[in-house]
Amino acid sequence: METTREIITSTLTGDQYTMIHHKSGLDILVYEMEGFSTTEAYFGTKYGSINTRFKTASDSDYCTVPEGIAHFLEHKLFENEDTDVFDLYAKTGANANAYTSFDKTCYYFSCSDNFRDSLEILLSFVQSPYFTPESVAKEQGIIGQEIRMCNDDPGWRVFFQMLCGLYQKHPVRIDIAGTIESIAQITADLLYRCYRTFYNLHNMVLVVAGKCTVDEVLEVADRLLKPCEDQKLETVFPEESLDIVRTESVENAAVGQPLFNLGMKCMPESGYAGQRAETEAALVLQILAGSSSPLYQSMLKDGLINSTFSSEVFRGDGYFTLIFGGESKDPRAVRQRITDAITNAQKNGLDESLFEEYQRATYGKYIRLLNNVSEVANAMVNAHMAGYDIFAAMEILSKVTIADCNRFLQEQMDISRMTLSIVAPSKN
User: What's the pLDDT tens digit per position in 116-128?
Assistant: First the structure.
């Protein structure tokens, strides 16, 4: 396999980056940003908390692993046999960290100087796993404490309570860190198996943006990347219908005012179609409940919501959810106002002037994103793993019409597929 290069260019702005199919099997994306003084790099794998069932070409059947193992593996990679990775970064002056989400794990750093040295550290430690029974047992205690802390966080609880109200079987309903019981099943052998499966370079991407050149990235990559065979990885999820589990859930916690998440379950999409559906959905949410909408203004005036109120599109492999959330003295009244607004819009159509306002505002947000090193790097990782390029969202947005948004409203937004999650003040 030979290394090849391809220039990806925005048809709208003329901005461009280089996509490299490296001989090792890794895709490398380099966005040279002239005039910037910082560089940010991400080394990511398409492996998140939802990927608990998988097989490769060499496996006779699917393997099921404990929930939380992707996050556990991320923690353990920062320790190798003789040193802590953060000590190495301290010598180059880079700020480094990592995260595990539902569908990916990323290791990253940002720096102003010593870029090559920091990139060497990144590529080296992510390719050098070291797990022992003793270190796994120690980490089980550490992550167990993290799980308990998250379970005590009202914002975290209201979100996962909502997901459990929507999804019957899909692992998105499980905390990214897993449970105390599931992480107790993790062993060094299981970690190595998941590492060999998901940290194969054919399942990963390296993204670099800012003060950098393609040649300097390739010089380090050519030296440090370890070529591997494509394992033909397959991940599967339980079959999930559009039916929800329940319409409402309530928990009590030490909060001053009730927190709520109102979620709507939609048909999941992937790739370019998924980005198009996300764009349409985000515009619909803004038109219905953005700060300029009659719904938002009336709820604010009546004291039903405050500045914490927001809406978002939450989607990934096998899930697509629209979420309204915030604080309210009466979350059920907020739910009624929102369902009334959806029903009214389905009957009469969306406000065209608000559509144009939010379309322009969103386009401006994308333009500003292209002038921020960190935003560019993060967006490139997300886009590549989802199956399109960083410019696709802007190009889709420029073509979306109010008719498209009205069609999404009619076909995807069903108020019978909504659940209300509430975390209310504890009763003394």
Answer: 999 999 999 999 9
